[in-house]
Write a structure and sequence with these properties.
Elements (H helix, E strand, L loop, with lengths): L4 H4 L3 E11 L2 E10 L5 E10 L4 H17 L2 H5 L5 H11 L2
Antiparallel strand pairs: 1-2, 2-3
């Protein structure tokens, strides 16, 4: 895939949103805000169950960075006015 100059110069703010699924499951949404547009997306979500291992954490961090290198998070996750809309869309897409 060839990237345009505008895609290469995009800047993002990354942040995490956490949600408890049940007493043993925690989900981390890997979210971005486009600094130019103020729009939001969810690149991916990570599920954690007890016991959480260092290998699991390292693997998910590596995947997060590899996905970001591979493709703009907004190409992968859409453009939404609120983070709640982005999370809802992500959940529907991966239900």
């Amino acid at each position: 895939m060839v990237r345009t100059n505008s895609e290469m110069n995009e800047t993002y703010r990354s942040f995490d949103i956490w949600r408890r699924r049940d007493s043993n499951t925690l989900v981390r949404y890997r979210c971005f805000e486009n600094c130019s547009t103020g729009r939001f997306c969810v690149q991916s979500s990570d599920s954690y169950k007890r016991p959480v291992t260092n290998d699991q954490i390292q693997s998910l961090e590596k995947q997060f960075i590899e996905l970001l290198i591979e493709q703009s998070p907004f190409e992968r996750g859409g453009f939404f006015a609120t983070i709640e809309e982005a999370i809802s869309d992500h959940d529907k897409s991966f239900a």
